[in-house]
Specification:
Elements: E1 12-22, E2 29-33, E3 38-42, H1 51-64, E4 71-75, E5 81-89
Parallel strand pairs: 1-3
Antiparallel strand pairs: 1-5, 2-3, 4-5
Length: 91
């Protein structure tokens, strides 16, 4: 039996950011704070059925220009302070 040729996997790297979420605001805003890995994010959603987390992830997808599958809430799923891992692929 021959080994199949494996396609080279794109290299990726990850970075971690801390996000403080403010809910029920009139519009969505992302503010990058100092240090650069800290963000304050205003969301229009309320804390109902995970809507705020979903809105946060979709907002971050557009901000960082990554796929939804590249974002992971690793801490703070039910908190206003979240630690998020962002996987980015190198070409």
């Amino acid at each position: 039996m021959k080994l199949k040729d494996k396609k080279p996997q794109p290299k990726k790297y990850s970075h971690i950011i801390e996000v403080k979420v403010k809910i029920g605001k009139p519009k969505q805003i992302i503010q990058e704070k100092i240090p650069a890995k800290y963000y304050e994010v205003s969301l229009t959603s309320q804390l109902v059925s995970n809507k705020a987390n979903n809105e946060l992830l979709l907002l971050l997808v557009n901000y960082f220009k990554v796929n939804l599958s590249d974002l992971h809430i690793i801490s703070g799923l039910r908190s206003s302070r979240k630690i998020i891992k962002i996987d980015e692929h190198l070409s």
